[in-house]
Specification:
It is a single chain. By secondary structure, this protein is α+β, with helices and mostly antiparallel strands. It has one domain. The protein is about 25% helix and about 15% strand. The chain has a ten-stranded antiparallel beta sheet with strand order 5-6-7-8-4-9-13-12-11-10. A four-stranded mixed beta sheet has the order 1-2-3-14, with no helix packed on it. The protein is flat, with a radius of gyration of 26 Å.
Length: about 475
């Protein structure tokens, strides 16, 4: 059935600029100059949250819609008004042009519908009871307004560097590592990007409606200080201004292949285990790898479309790491806020959302997933053994001849990389922890400021009698 289209007439509302935004012209150059002249900024007591960067609060729909059960509640976030942040189908809609879009059967099923403040209907993630720690968080993207860092710093920050320093200080409290280096280029449609920790993720900032995007990769989730999920939940619900989780991945591992495999997942798809609605259209499916003539390099089964709100991957993790005899299989469920509201509750209880993602995953409600350190140790063991085999196969003959010519010690000195910080790319994740890598930017010494700038401590203004002076 085709969706009903309605014409939405929105009156343009011009909201006043704050004195600071009007004076600086909302430009980064002006803010940088002000930072050099005025120092760290002035107290933000007289400056409320800037209305130009935050949309209106969501409005509850009419009683007639609630009476028929169309929309049971209002949306608590406003992701529909956010610009796109990456190329994987997240927040593709824009506030300037909105249109109704149909939702596939695999996205509906047993869900509640909510309406955002912009009038867009979204579904809420399905939740089922889980008696075990079924999964772990393997990736998360979330964004907040830059005003969040004004709130934590308790002053009006002027330059982008000050905002990054304050964000680094707060992120270190949450994850155990802060922002370490500028990547020198943009990312995910943001103007600038920084490295989080020792390659644990990314921070993107600039030119996206005064928001900041924080990405914690699988390596970051694995190495963050224990309890980061609860600390992040408290930050998003109690401190952050207009927080939005745009992506979260939940992963379950079967290290021995006792009950989980790509062939099991494929059979479940054939039996309708990935469709909430009986007789409905099943989700899309893609096979990767040599399924017909098995080569031992690993198989992958993808359920759904990468640009949709829910996407599942089943793949042979052990073979991907390099062990052709390993039966280790992993299941990953990727949620995005394209047509779904991702609530912060998923940080505290990811297992209930994992088993509720598809009907066939209900069997995992009582199955414990291995601990993070056990998974890291297993992957490290497989990777080291495979790296030794690759080195022996490709360079073993040279090393044997060099040992005969120069001896063991001189041979090692000749073939060893001179850079003490150089690591093979595939081994680097196993040598990185929360306390490794360069120091975060908020603990680095402040830049040198010439002495003739120090006498300017206040904002220049005019006196009561018209004379020039300082307030």
């Amino acid at each position: 059935m085709r969706p009903v289209r309605k014409t939405l007439i929105k009156g343009s509302r011009k909201e006043p600029f704050s004195p600071y935004a009007e004076a600086s012209g909302c430009s980064t150059q002006a803010r940088s100059v002000k930072s050099q002249i005025y120092g760290v900024g002035k107290p933000a007591a007289a400056c409320a949250d800037r209305s130009v960067s935050a949309p209106a609060l969501p409005v509850r729909i009419g009683a007639e819609a609630e009476s028929v059960g169309l929309v049971p509640q209002i949306a608590h976030v406003s992701a529909a008004g956010c610009p796109p942040i990456n190329n994987m189908g997240e927040n593709l809609e824009s506030a300037e042009s909105e249109a109704w879009s149909s939702i596939c059967d695999e996205d509906l099923g047993e869900v509640e519908l909510v309406m955002t403040d912009s009038g867009k209907i979204k579904s809420v993630m399905v939740r089922r009871p889980s008696a075990a720690q079924t999964c772990v968080i393997d990736w998360i993207n979330f964004s907040v307004l830059e005003d969040t860092w004004f709130k934590t710093a308790r002053e009006q920050l002027i330059s982008d560097d000050q905002i990054i320093v304050e964000a680094s200080r707060q992120l270190e409290k949450i994850f155990g590592f802060g922002i370490t280096a500028n990547r020198g280029k943009g990312m995910n449609f943001y103007r600038d990007s920084w490295v989080l920790g020792d390659d644990m993720g990314f921070v993107c900032f600039g030119s996206q409606r005064s928001t900041m995007l924080i990405t914690l990769t699988g390596q970051g989730c694995l190495n963050a200080v224990a309890g980061w999920e609860k600390r992040l939940y408290d930050f998003l619900t109690k401190t952050a201004i207009r927080p939005t989780i745009s992506r979260i991945d939940l992963a379950h591992d079967d290290l021995t292949g006792a009950y989980l495999s790509v062939h099991w997942a494929y059979q479940q798809w054939l039996d309708g285990g990935f469709s909430f609605k009986k007789g409905g259209r099943p989700p899309e499916i893609q096979k990767h790898g040599n399924w017909d003539r098995y080569s031992g390099k690993g198989l992958t089964l993808a359920i759904g479309m990468r640009s949709s709100s829910k996407f599942a991957r089943f793949y042979e993790k052990g073979k991907k790491e390099g062990d052709k005899l390993s039966l280790w299989c992993r299941c990953e469920i990727e949620f995005k806020s394209t047509n779904t509201i991702i609530r912060p509750d998923v940080l505290l209880d990811p297992s209930s959302f994992f088993v509720g993602a598809y009907p066939c995953l209900a069997m995992f409600a009582t199955v414990e997933t291995p601990a993070r350190m056990e998974v890291k140790a297993r992957a490290q063991h497989i990777t080291v053994e495979d790296s030794i085999a690759v080195t022996k196969r490709q360079y073993g003959k040279y090393i044997r001849v060099f040992r005969a010519l120069f001896g063991d010690k001189e041979t090692l000195d000749l073939i060893t990389n001179e850079d003490e910080n150089a690591f093979p790319k595939r081994l680097k994740p196993f040598l990185s922890f929360a306390d490794t890598g360069p120091a975060p930017v908020h603990v680095e010494p402040p830049p040198y400021v010439p002495s003739f700038f120090h006498f300017i401590n206040t904002v220049p203004s005019f006196g009561l009698n018209g004379e020039h002076g300082f307030a």
